[in-house]
Amino acid sequence: MKLILIRHGETLWNKEGRIQGTSDIELSEAGIEQARRLALSLKDSEIYAIHASPLKRAYQTAEIINSFHQRKIEVHPELAEMDQGEFEGLTFKELMACEKEFLHRWIADPASVRMPRGESLTELQARAWQPIEKIIAGGENALVVAHNFTIAAILCRLRKISLSDFRSTCVDNASKTLIHIREGQAHIELMNDRSHLSAPDS
User: Fold this and answer.
1) Where are the alpha helices (DSSP H) in the chain?
2) What is the CATH code for 2-197?
3) How far apart are the first and last CA of the chain?
4) How does DSSP classify residue 42?
5) I want to staple 13 with a disulfide (CB 3.0 to 4.6 A). Which of 18, 69, 159, 172 is the partner?
6) Of 51, 76, 147, 180, which residue is the catalytic one?
7) Is the pTM of this model over 0.85?
């Protein structure tokens, strides 16, 4: 089977460099255009199931992609972005100015550090893997629209690497990552691809 992991298009918070976890921010105009180009690049793909986080930015992206496939979009709360707790809405500049001690711990051991009043990567991976495991067990080509940390945690599990190495699996807005699942093994064929964003309209 093929599993396509999609990160949602850009939001204003993405553009402003704000920490965006469970805050339910919609796609910006630029994000809608990114999703449209992403959808065009996938229009001829054999996609039999579409799954999404319930957050607007992911669901909107899934809807735009689904305009070419007409599948029922299955929504999974477990695919939502990591809860950033007290950091929600802060800019990265503000975070670096006021949370240097936390950031040192996060850089040193990201797998076990929990966001204040939020989640850890370990907790995120445990919940996000639940629907992914069922999707893979279903054996049909599927597309999943989610978020940066969520996708990173899923890819760490698929690649059988530690969450401490999650930075090697981070993905950009409106990117696609293509994975072939063969005999229970994941083979990543395309990672964080955004070539469609600069491709001419067909």
Assistant:
1) 12-16, 29-42, 56-66, 92-98, 100-108, 121-138, 148-159
2) 3.40.50.1240
3) 27
4) H
5) 18
6) 147
7) yes
